Amino acid sequence: MYLKDKHIEAMKHIATYKFLTSSQLVKLGLNKHRGDVTNNLKQLTDQKRPLIDKITFPVDPEKGKLESIYYLTSRGVKFLIEDLDYPEDQIKATKSKPTSTQTYFHRKSTIDFHICLREWLNCNDGSVVFLNYDFDKVGNNRSKDRIQHLKAINSLELDNGVSFIPDAITKFKVAERDYLFLFEQHNGKSSKRLIEQLCLHAIAISEGIASQKYNFERSNRVVVVCEFETLKNIVTYKMKQMKIFDNLHNFFIFKTNDEMKNYFFSDWSLISGQKVDFI
């Protein structure tokens, strides 16, 4: 099958990030405009057995029309591996498609973080060792052994048996030094669930849960990105009053989505409000 360079480039981007919208593909440099992305990918999505498919969503009552999400089909995965010798372990294949608008913005924002991270690493002689999302699964529900059924790759179990799933877990390298970061994306204006999740992170850091799981010699850091600045400020204020975070102020860094997109490396906030760099 003959494909244009832009088609192959789009497939490789989607293999890396799993799901992408046209605006995200514009940010990645595929085309200058969303309309050009749509036109470019029609050849791949309109086939009888497409290499790339897309998920469309109903109009959101507050946000209006939502962008479609592109993903690789099983045929697209096979094409990358067999025709382009693309490494299979670098392909984020889709086991289930997101169809709910309830998770749409959260998932899109989580992928935005992945894009920003890779762009920054590419400019600073760094590389991603791995990055897994909360919606990445491992296993097979057809197995007779329930232990082998689908489960979240990111699931972490505390010493008391309580499990939680960070929105993303990544290990990356800069200047021959490894880093392990856990990521939380928070959409909306309610602080309760986010603080509960960050308390679990605090316990996990104290118990070395992620460091043990990923064979990392230091404690991990937690990146928290909030949709709204007011929510970010409320959360850090409350965390300053909580004893569980007393010795962990340097392990949590905060930004809003807009701040992250505008300047990724610098001006992250600690719980105390002090500004620090990403690493």
Topology diagram in text:
Blueprint: H1 5-17, H2 22-27, H3 34-45, E1 52-55, E2 69-72, H4 74-84, H5 104-123, E3 126-133, E4 137-138, E5 151-152, E6 156-157, E7 163-164, E8 168-174, E9 177-186, H6 192-207, H7 209-213, E10 221-226, H8 229-240, E11 252-256, H9 257-262, E12 268-269, E13 275-276
Parallel strand pairs: 9-10, 10-11
Antiparallel strand pairs: 1-2, 3-8, 4-5, 6-7, 8-9, 12-13
Write a concise synopsis of the structure shown.
By secondary structure, the chain is α+β, with helices and mostly antiparallel strands. The protein has 9 helices and 13 strands.
Helix content: 25-40%
Proportion of strand residues: 15-25%
Strand order of the largest sheet: 3-8-9-10-11
Radius of gyration: 20 Å
How far the N terminus sits from the C terminus, by CA atoms, comes to 44 Å
- Secondary-structure element string: HHHEEHHEEEEEEEHHEHEHEE
Q: How would you classify the helix and strand content by structural class?
A: alpha+beta
Which CATH architecture of the largest domain? 3-Layer(aba) Sandwich
Commentary on this structure:
It comes from Candidatus Sulfurimonas baltica. This is Replication-relaxation family protein. The structure is a single chain. With 279 residues, the chain is α+β, with helices and mostly antiparallel strands. It has two domains: 5-100, Winged helix-like DNA-binding domain superfamily/Winged helix DNA-binding domain (Arc Repressor Mutant, subunit A); 105-276, 3-Layer(aba) Sandwich (Trna Endonuclease, Chain: A, domain 1), CATH 3.40.1350. It has helices at residues 5-17, 22-27, 34-45, 74-84, 104-123, 192-207, 209-213, 229-240, 257-262, and strands spanning 52-55, 69-72, 126-133, 137-138, 151-152, 156-157, 163-164, 168-174, 177-186, 221-226, 252-256, 268-269, 275-276. The strands form five sheets. It has a five-stranded mixed β-sheet with strand order 3-8-9-10-11, sandwiched between helices. The protein has a two-stranded antiparallel sheet with strand order 1-2. Strands 4-5 form a two-stranded antiparallel ribbon. The longest helix has 20 residues, at 104-123. It is globular. It starts with a helix and ends with a strand.
